[in-house]
Design goal:
Distance between the termini: 51 Å
Helix content: 40-55%
CATH class: Alpha Beta
Number of helices: 5
Number of domains: 1
Strand content: 15-25%
Order of helices and strands: HHHEEHHEE
Structural class: alpha+beta
Largest sheet: 4 strands, antiparallel
CATH architecture: 2-Layer Sandwich
CATH topology: Muramoyl-pentapeptide Carboxypeptidase, domain 2
Radius of gyration: 16 Å
Number of strands: 4
């Protein structure tokens, strides 16, 4: 029997819970559980930022734009071990109200791929990564936004949009 490293076990547990949440959301909300998942991501980001501040002394600063909120979340995520490097993300501010982003080699790719494999399409994906970036905009900039996945698993990358409602 192989012994699993604790960091790998942590990711397995995170993916297990994410898959369970998304499957349960689909049980109750059909093929489009996005509103439920948005609230899950809101709570996840709020808890994560609170832990970074209270337990690790991170300075959580309010910002005033979609892009600055996402950039700050990425910066804190790198410092907090959530992301390995800021180069995992490409941001393109289309205008002050819309940010397009590319996520390189998303760790949640398997979860989304499982849904694609059973017949869902890109517009059905609730996307934990981009969804949490949208939640970070809400928490850090107090800007209500929506998000959408635009493409999935193009050479291991996903693309999406965060846009002010």
């Amino acid at each position: 029997m192989v012994k699993i490293k604790s960091d790998e076990a942590g990711w397995m547990m995170a993916l297990t819970w994410l898959s369970a949440i998304e499957e349960t959301a689909r049980d109750f909300h059909g093929t489009r559980p996005k509103m439920f998942c948005k609230r899950v991501y809101d709570h996840a980001v709020e808890h994560y930022l609170r832990m970074l501040g209270e337990e690790y002394g991170f300075q959580i600063k309010k910002v005033d734009t979609i892009q600055s909120a996402v950039e700050q979340y990425i910066q804190m995520g790198v410092a907090g071990g959530l992301f390995s490097d800021k180069s995992q993300f490409e941001l393109n501010a289309v205008n002050p109200y819309r940010l397009d982003m590319t996520v390189h080699q998303c760790v949640y790719l398997k979860s989304c791929q499982n849904l694609i494999d059973i017949g869902f399409n890109v517009r059905d994906l609730s996307c934990a990564r981009i969804g949490c970036f949208r939640a970070a905009v809400k928490v850090l900039a107090n800007i209500d936004c929506d998000y959408a996945v635009k493409s999935f698993n193009i050479n291991g990358d996903c693309q999406g949009t965060i846009e002010r409602v």
